[in-house]
Write a structure and sequence with these properties.
The chain is mainly α. The protein has helices spanning 12-19, 30-48, 51-66, 71-87, 95-98, 106-115, 129-135, 148-160, 166-179, 182-198, 202-217, 229-236. It starts with 11 loop residues before the first helix and ends in a 6-residue tail after the last helix.
Length: 242
């Protein structure tokens, strides 16, 4: 497994709290270190296509965060979990967060709505700054995002809301490929191949399918199958985007 991605400002309070474990000063509580490490490994495992490890690490993080009795910390972990789905074009309810919604602050509720493609205009200002442009449909928003997971989440929201142009799809593919994130790469390649087929460019579609085959072969030794990632994602994409 590759080095786990860092939790960035995309996830606000959790990142600030957990990354403080790396700062100088008194040794942080064990739960901080363990929750931070588990969430990073959970994200990495999901993006690489290892669902078994992803779920096990997520449960560890949930257990550590629940020890604090703070709904906001647990909710942010749930949002991170759901964000990886949006990045991989799996559009589904963020059930873990919804169970906590009534006890968390407004910015977290706004971010959950953003992931679902339904954030209200008056709540856009509550989102992390890099995501605000994508929330209002700015397809050029990805260019200002340095964090690869933020880029893929924004691209997923744009696709979900019918505002992803070919440049957004191409950048999402490049980002997933550069990170070695097999699951979102297959999903985004599947979208690009579908659009090529619908546009009558069968040669390009065939090239993309070959690239998907290469990516799928790289999963032959994975402990959890990812060969159906593109097909699963395609089922979740709104019809107007296909």
């Amino acid at each position: 497994m590759s080095t786990p991605p860092k939790l960035t400002t995309l996830f606000g309070a959790l990142a600030v709290l957990l990354l403080s474990a790396c700062a100088s000063g008194p040794k942080p509580p064990d739960w901080q270190l363990e929750a931070k490490g588990s969430m990073e490994r959970s994200v990495a495992a999901y993006m690489e296509g290892n669902s078994r490890v992803e779920q096990a690490e997520l449960e560890r993080a949930r257990s550590q965060l629940a020890r604090t009795g703070r709904a906001d910390l647990l909710a942010t972990a749930e949002l991170l979990h759901c964000a990886t789905r949006v990045a991989s074009l799996v559009f589904e309810p963020c059930a873990g967060f919804e169970n906590l919604r009534q006890d968390v602050p407004a910015p977290q509720r706004a971010y959950a709505d953003y992931l679902g493609g339904r954030v209200q205009p008056q709540d856009v200002a509550l989102l992390p700054a890099p995501q605000r442009a994508a929330a209002v449909g700015d397809a050029g928003a990805l260019k200002s995002m340095a964090d690869p997971l933020s880029q893929l989440v924004a691209a997923g929201v744009l696709l979900q809301t019918g505002k992803a142009n070919p440049a957004v799809i191409a950048q999402a593919i490049d980002t997933a490929s550069a990170q070695g994130w097999r699951r979102p790469l297959l999903a985004w390649l599947g979208v690009q191949a579908q659009r090529a087929e619908q546009g009558g460019d069968l040669e390009e579609a065939a090239r993309l399918r070959r690239r998907m085959d290469i990516t799928q072969r790289s999963a032959s030794g994975a402990k959890a199958p990812v060969k159906e990632a593109a097909q699963e994602a395609a089922k979740e994409i709104p019809k107007e985007n296909k």
